[in-house]
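Practice problem: predict the structure.
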Amino acid sequence: MRIGVMRGGGGGGGGASGGERTDKLIKGSRMKLWIIRAAISVLLWTCIVQLTTLGETWGPSVLKGCPSCFSRQDSSVSAIEDKVPSVPARVIPPKRVYKNNGYLMVSCNGGLNQMRAAICDMVTIARYLNVTLIVPELDKTSFWADPSEFQDIFDVNHFITSLRDEVRILKELPPRLKRRVEMGIVYSMPPISWSDMSYYHNQILPLIRKYKVVHLNRTDARLANNGQSLDVQKLRCRVNFNALRFTPQIEELGKRVVKLLRQNGPFIVLHLRYEMDMLAFSGCTQGCNDEEVDELTRMRYAYPWWKEKIINSELKRKDGLCPLTPEETTLILTALDIDNSYQIYIAAGEIYCGKRRLADLAAAYPKLVRKETLLEPSDLGFFQNHSSQMAALDYLVSLESDIFIPTYDGNMAKVVQGHRRYLGFKQTILLDRRILVDLIDQYNNGSLSWDEFSDAVKKSHENRKGQPTKRSVFPDRPKEEDYFYANPEECLQQQYGQLSSS
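Answer:
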């Protein structure tokens, strides 16, 4: 029995062995089948991903050449397609290949347009030093205390990809270098103002090679206006006029404002620099009462980095160094025969003592508007307490206006002026404040009749309307030259021989 059982068990074991072999064959076949299916699935998914990626560039042209792929026409789809405008495929330039000498971090200072020009300079410097640029940091400590990051104002992905054939730009440093910077181990310095590219090659590049990362702060006006190669100047323009695109949200709201204005006829953008901080900083108090003068003076002393404290307002005004007041601006617009049926869009922050000081302008030009009067509060809610984003909105409207008139030659006035030149020398009336305040005083004291005053204003501004002109050059006094971004002469579609002398 035991043997029988053992044999039986053995016989059973022999049967199980055959069954096991069969099972193994079946399982092996199933495993092979599963592996084949998995491989096919991976291959198919890889193909789909590749086709999807390529479809962004090739898809539209390929499908147009293959109508049989969509033989069944859906009327609802056709209706939608009729309403949606066709968008050309985005062409991404190829990457520029170069030996990376290190990484450049930059912190821009000032308001929107001061930072905008600095970004253009820093991109150009990074390109010609063959370094990798980290997306610039924007000023959050200025008077306006705007917490906006670069990507809150500019389309950061467009900025990076549109310049990839010139310079490598990253959103942040590689992890190892980022940790060093977070620990405070970074070489930081302000570059010398109005330097040419040789300064950056001879002084900054060796530092980048030594430390791997260099941080440049206070980057405004760090590249010279003149004496640069044509390639350098053209890259500055490319960054300014192509790569620095505002976010879709800002762009769309800007288009809405322009559309609302266009519905009511021609419009002028008046960049009326008469905000409280501007007056306190400049010390210009024309038309202010004693209480207002005291308030502005206290504000000037409250900011220690505003170095000039004791200011003779009258003398500064005579020298043409003060923004025109709203009352003075009204006289000038009228003297220039600006039609009072035109809309006047005020591109500025809150006007100091606005209701009282704007009374003359509102009486002479009843179609006085601002973004706050054209849009609902909910439209601007996102932009509140973000002065640079509000300035970006005014910038877009300024570019589209029939006439742009700044009352002070600050950074916005300069950069918008240059952009309007680039767009075809759109009319920009550049007010000569030194001449104008003298004419205004003569008119107010009765030395000039209205007709004499008006004729003098017109004559003095015949050649100050944004026409083609040579950029001034003072090698020893770069601050007194025409600012590159106000007149990017090298980038304009004009031969030097056609440019009039300034």
